[in-house]
Amino acid sequence: MTKKLLTRAIVKQRIQDGDRVFLAGDKHYTPATADHKQCWPKIIAAVEKGGERGAMYSTLRAIGGSNKEYAAYLIGQLQVLQCPALEDRLGLMSA
Question: What is the spatial distance between Cα 18 and Cα 82, in angstroms, rounded to a whole number?
Fold first, then answer.
């Protein structure tokens, strides 16, 4: 299975709250909506604050506020965030 098969639906279905999430260094993202513009810097700050530990998925979901799918969107659809534990569970290969 390749990384291209990682979707928002798969992320929502298989990710665990305690999974650590990191920034994907090779991807760039510019939020388009007002709420995404507000959440994205907070997500970056949370992930960077964790350093090598990243941020827990549950923390990123909480940052998304009413948009509980935002973190899954960033991991699955845009792949600007990555979750190595999820990728390992799914048997995904690094791109």
Answer: 14
